[in-house]
Design a protein that fits this description.
The chain is of the alpha+beta class and 411 residues long. It folds into 3 domains: 13-177, no CATH class; 195-248, SH3 type barrels (Roll), CATH 2.30.30; 256-398, Alpha-Beta Plaits (2-Layer Sandwich), CATH 3.30.70. 58% of the residues lie in helices and 11% in strands. It has helices at residues 2-48, 53-60, 63-68, 70-79, 88-121, 133-155, 160-169, 171-177, 179-193, 238-241, 248-253, 274-281, 287-302, 319-333, 368-385, 399-410; strands at 202-205, 210-217, 221-226, 231-235, 245-246, 256-264, 344-347, 355-363. The strands form 2 sheets. A 5-stranded antiparallel sheet has the order 4-3-2-1-5, with no helix packed on it. Helix 2 (53-60) packs across helix 5 and helix 6 (133-155) crosses helix 7. It is rod-shaped, with a radius of gyration of 40 Å. GO terms for molecular function: mechanosensitive monoatomic ion channel activity. Keywords: Cell inner membrane, Cell membrane, Membrane, Stress response, Transmembrane, Transmembrane helix. InterPro entries: LSM_dom_sf, MS_channel_C, MscS_beta-dom_sf, MscS_channel_2nd, YbdG. Its main location: membrane.
Length: 411
C-alpha cells in the first residue's frame, strides 16, 4: 500500500506536465482556427470592399493565410516555458521547433509579398520597359537562404553566425554552385540598366534559333516566342556575352526598311532616241525629269559646236538612268512609302548577274504582313514597267529557254 502511494506521488508531476502540454496544444489549435477562419475571413471581406490593388494581390498570393499560421506557433513558443515540471531539454526543443516553424511561415509570407509586388508592378506602364522579375527571383533566393540558415541554427540551438562562418570557408564551392545565378544577375542588371531588352521586343539571335517576341524576362532565362509559335529559352547571360538584334528601334521609328535589288540585263542598256523619249515623257512621273534633262542636254551639246556632229561626243539619256529616275519618282509618290526617311534608287557594281538597281526606302507600316504587301506591290509594279524602258531583267536560262534555243537551232 505504501509502495503504490509513493509511485502515485512520483508519477503525478508527469501527469501534470502532460495535461499542461495538452492544454497548450489545444490553445494553439484554437488560435489556428481563429486565425484562419475568423481573422482571414474578416481580412478578405475588407479587401473585397477596397479598390486598392495591393491588398487584392496580397490576398491572391495567400500572404494573410501564411501569416495567420504563425500565431499557433507563437502560442507554443511563449507557453511552453509555463508548463510545470517539464524537463529543460524538452522545453528548449519544443521552443526551438515552434520558433523554426514561425520563421518558415514568415518566410513564406514574405515570398508571397514579393510575388504580389511583382504582380502589381506588371500592371503598370513601367513594366513593359523595366522588368523586375529577375530581381524578385534573386530576392526570393536570398530570403530562403537566410531563412534556411536561421531555421537550421534554431533547430541545433547554435548561433547563425557560426553557420555563416562555415559558409565563408566554403565560398569557393558556393561560387561554383551559384555561378549561373551570379552571371544571370549581372546580366539582368546590365540588360535593365542599359534598356537593352524589354518584354514585347522582337529580337533575332540565330545562334540559339531565336526569332520572335520576348514574352518573359526572368533571372536565369529569357523566353522568346518565335514566329512559328515555338518557344526558345535563352540563358540571360548569353544576351550579354553574345550579340543579338533588337527590332524595337524599327518599331518605334514608324518605318521599316525596304532594301532589294533588280538585276538588269546589261545587254538591254542603251541610249534613248527621240521616239523613246517622246514615249516616256507621256508618263506623268517622268515628264518633269525628261523636260529638265532635255533642256540641260541641249545646252551642253550646243556648247560643243561642230563636235556635236559625232554622236559619241554628245550627252544623251540612257534607258537605265531614266528608269532609276522613274523608280525614285514612283517611290516618292507612293503613300505607303515614308517620305521623311531615306529614299533612293541606286546603281550597284555590275556583275555576272547583270547590273543591280537597288531600291532603298522605308514603308509607313511596321506591321509584318502590311510591310510585305507594300514591298510586294512596289516590286510588282517595277518588274512590270521594265519593258517600257526597253530593259530586261536578268534571269538564268531555264529548261524552257534551252528547249526554245534547241528548236531554233534545229529549224
Amino acid at each position: 500500500m505504501l509502495t503504490s502511494g509513493i509511485t502515485w506521488l512520483s508519477a503525478e508531476p508527469w501527469a501534470h506536465s502532460a495535461g499542461s502540454l495538452v492544454l497548450l496544444l489545444s490553445v494553439a489549435v484554437a488560435a489556428r482556427v481563429v486565425a484562419s477562419r475568423v481573422i482571414v475571413r474578416v481580412v478578405r471581406l475588407v479587401v473585397q470592399r477596397t479598390t486598392n490593388r495591393w491588398d487584392d494581390a496580397l490576398l491572391g498570393y495567400r500572404v494573410f493565410h501564411r501569416a495567420a499560421q504563425v500565431l499557433p506557433y507563437v502560442v507554443i513558443e511563449w507557453g511552453i516555458g509555463l508548463v510545470p515540471d517539464l524537463p529543460a531539454g524538452v522545453a528548449v526543443l519544443g521552443g526551438n521547433l515552434a520558433l523554426a516553424m514561425m520563421m518558415l511561415y514568415a518566410a513564406l509570407a514574405a515570398d508571397g509579398i514579393l510575388d504580389a509586388a511583382q504582380a502589381v508592378y506588371s500592371t503598370t506602364p513601367h513594366a513593359r520597359t523595366r522588368s523586375i522579375k529577375g530581381y524578385v527571383q534573386l530576392g526570393k533566393l536570398a530570403l530562403f537562404v537566410i531563412a534556411a540558415i536561421a531555421i537550421v541554427a534554431t533547430l541545433i540551438d547554435r548561433s547563425p553566425w557560426l553557420l555563416l562562418s562555415g559558409l565563408g570557408a566554403m565560398s569557393a564551392v558556393l561560387m561554383l554552385v551559384f555561378k549561373d545565378t551570379l552571371l544571370s544577375f549581372v546580366a539582368s542588371v546590365q540588360l535593365t540598366s542599359n534598356d537593352m531588352l524589354r518584354v514585347g521586343d522582337w529580337i533575332e539571335m540565330p545562334q540559339v534559333g531565336a526569332d520572335g517576341d520576348v514574352v518573359d524576362i526572368a533571372l536565369h532565362t529569357v523566353k522568346v516566342q518565335n514566329w512559328d509559335k515555338t518557344i526558345t529559352t535563352i540563358p540571360t547571360w548569353r544576351l550579354i556575352s553574345e550579340s543579338f538584334r533588337n527590332w524595337r528601334g524599327m518599331q518605334q521609328s514608324g518605318g521599316r526598311r525596304i532594301k532589294r535589288t533588280l538585276c538588269i540585263d546589261a545587254g538591254s542598256v542603251a541610249f534613248l532616241d527621240e521616239a523613246a523619249m517622246a514615249h516616256l515623257s507621256r508618263m506623268h512621273l517622268l515628264t518633269p525629269y525628261i523636260e529638265e534633262k532635255q533642256r540641260k542636254l541641249t545646252e551642253a551639246n550646243q556648247a560643243l559646236g561642230t563636235a556635236a556632229g559625232v554622236p559619241a561626243n554628245t550627252r544623251r539619256l540612257t534607258n537605265i538612268g531614266t528608269f532609276r529616275a522613274y523608280v525614285l519618282a514612283y517611290l516618292k509618290a507612293n503613300p505607303d512609302i515614308h517620305d521623311e526617311m531615306t529614299c533612293m534608287a541606286r546603281a550597284m557594281e555590275p556583275g555576272a548577274t547583270g547590273i543591280p538597281i537597288e531600291v532603298y526606302c522605308f514603308s509607313t507600316s511596321v506591321v509584318w504582313a502590311e510591310y510585305e504587301r507594300i514591298q510586294g506591290d512596289v516590286f510588282d509594279h517595277l518588274l512590270a514597267i521594265l519593258p517600257e524602258f526597253g530593259l530586261r531583267l536578268y534571269q538564268n536560262p531555264a529548261g524552257a529557254d534551252l528547249q526554245r534555243w534547241q528548236a531554233l537551232s534545229v529549224g
